[in-house]
Amino acid sequence: MGTVVKSKERVSRRTMMKGAAGAGATGLAVGVGTRMNGGGEVKASALQSSVEEIAEARGLTPDDITAALKTYVPSGVHDDFLIFSSGGQSGQVLVIGVPSMRLLKVIAVFAPEPWQGFGFSNDTWDVLAGGEVDGKVLTCGDTHHPGLSETEGQYDGQFLFINDKANARIGVIDLRDFETKQIVKNPHIISNHGGTFVTPNTEYIIDGSQYAAPHAWQYAPIENYADEYRGAMTFWKFDRDAGRIAQDQSFSVELPPYWNDLADAGKGPSMGWMFSNTFNTELSYGSGGGDAPPVEVGASQRDMDYLTVINWEKAAEVVAAGRAEEVNGMPMIPMGVAVEEGLLWFVPEPKSPHGADVTPDGKYIVVSGKLDPHVTIYSFEKIQQAIADGKYEPDAYGVPVLDFEACMEAQVELGLGPLHTQFDDQGLAYTSLFLDSGIARWKVGGEGVDDGWKLIDMIPMQFNTGHICVAEGDTVSPAGQYLIGMNKWALDRFHPVGPLLPQNFQLVDITGDQMQLLYDMPIGIGEPHYVQMIKSERLENIWEVYPEVGWDTINQAPSEFATQIGQERIERDGENVTIYMTTIRSTIRPDYIELQKGDKVTLHLTNVELAHDATHGFTMPGQDINLSIEPGETTTVSWVADTAGTYPYYCTEFCSALHLEMMGYLLVTP
Amino acid sequence: MAASTHVAGTTTAFTRQESGRWTRALARAKASWLQLPFLAGSAALLIGSIFLPYWNIILRAPQYPKGLSVDVYVNRLEDMRSVREVDGLNHYIGMIPLTDAATIERAISLYAIPLIAILAVASIFAAGWWRTILRLPVVIYPVIFVLDLFGWLYYAGHSLDPTAALSSSISEFTPRLLGTGVIGQFKTEAQFEVGFWMAVLATLLVIVAIVLDWRKRQGPNES
Lengths: 670, 223
Description:
Chain A has eleven helices and 44 strands. Helix content of chain B is 57%, strand content 13%. Chain B is elongated, with a radius of gyration of 24 Å.
């Protein structure tokens, strides 16, 4: 079991599950009895009768009770896994414990968030502003696909990336303090569904364009779609030491105006390559003001779309060799160069595909049909062979399209609307079925595998499953054990809350012969898309408090504005007033500030606390200011004292018994 | 000694006198060589104890599941995180910060402790009662430490700022020197640590040396 903070003696989860999974309440009571007898307190028989009474009173079935036992995490005990979930339209990232499905934190990324003070302090506003578009700071985003940093193809627990599909931006979150440090705007593309997917050592963060548009956010008439609209695959270089995306070392590969969807990096034998499913090879842009059909029809005409295959290692060499063009301040490899260098290939995929997921061994790429009941499995080796054998024809843009039969390893019929595939530690794959509203489990084939490429079973989900996630299920060594289905519709699963319903995360136990639904978690904060699940033990570098008092949390270094107790002061230079303030239970120093109307105020706050959880907040009436100052943190806020008046400011975190007294008066004289 | 007679060949009264002192001191040391290991061991223990905690207090409350543990060394308090937190809590009852206590003692300890250790060792060269007198500081040092610590605990608990936020809810008290106590929602556990016990052992070793010395003086070979 996870980190046991209590000193109570416990049996391991596996033992508990074995005890519990047998035959409902009876087997269960024995399992629990073992545990409680370990503490020498409760007799098994007494427990059994009370469990039965509770079950009867609450109308619980034996399956319900095993599900409860598998998910209950006692007070003070930590979860075995954490998931990082996109917050969808909230523009945020959710951190949730598994198997308890307890929400641990909402990390502000693309939208201001008052509790964390994100977007309210100068430093966090600057992070938000890093993603500005033509001088306009955006305060919303559509987060889709979180990507944990990896080392040798496995999550390393250091950083998390998340894309904003709506504006083709990437946020970088530092997993020492779970805060957003950087937002970059893609200078080439207008929207990015194909992010964020990291290469096995986080060399690059892959970011694929969705809706084609003229590069660099330019205008071009819609009739010129085929000629002037383009797609791109961007490779953001990640500087791990700096904890930042290095835009000056990043680049894109130009693509035809098809729409890229999801992507995955190759690993093992396919290291150095990446794969993305691509649709709308019909070049539909809807009516365009004319009689053409809408996109849903126009983009669904051809029987085959493409799997886009790019050799990113080669691409980086081509950029280094100076064969890329500078587009809006960042290099882009023109399509012609990419084709000439042999780093860009297409492989046909059945109609309007979704998902492109590389098997843990890096040998195969699984693409879901979406409008086709199969998953299609491509062999990386066969793709390489087809390239070597010259089995390709150029498409309309000159990109070589490899022969489908030559690259295809297998097709497995799973059900209707297959979307996303993940893998476990037993050689099994799991694919969400959107239309059938369920999850199919099937066996990965290949050399030495009997009965491979075969459907095993399916579990119904409630309802309309989009992405799924198996623990570490997109790494080289999946953990298995749990699967989470991200269901778009909840319908009747929860108490009604009006017409806007929460999404439904469903936790599934995949260890047994039958997959078992364990828990429904409503997500009432936006529509998550993808999540990644990491063993909590991998997150070993989390700070309890900042390393030093007076810490610049954006640059993760001592702040030049750090203020220690006794150094509090108010400095005036004409109408510019700088205040150096400290907070410690239960005093804000200075607790009296006098300003003149029109003063331009800069306030540096340092929380001089060193104690775990001793966070202070800061708010000022009428100024739209709300800050979080975590132990050790120094943060800054500026405003203009444009209205004379009396402003009591105070700590917004209930920090101590004298929390209400933790305040001060700011007066603005007329 | 040979060196002084060699100088200029004319031995002055002064150097003769000096020479005689050294010769006698060395002779005294040689005669009581048996005490030296005890005195040297005592000095090593005392000097080593400077680097180790003498006293520890742990404060436990629901909000502090790991407890706040403060180690008192002869010249410092550790760890600073706990010290600051304890000071932060103490300010509610108007108690002086821990770092404001025993400032002189902490400042001189790094010199004073090696000094008394060296005096005790050097006593081997001394004669008569001087031997015992030079050894006495080491003997009484642990007692001085405990009395000083108790004094500061008493002072801290009896000099509470009457204007402090919670001053009305607490009356004067002395934090426990040893064992468990209760202050507000905190339970305290205090105990001596390894440095203190080393100092006590140093004392015992010196007492052995003193006893040896006394016996020697009462014995037949006393000169």
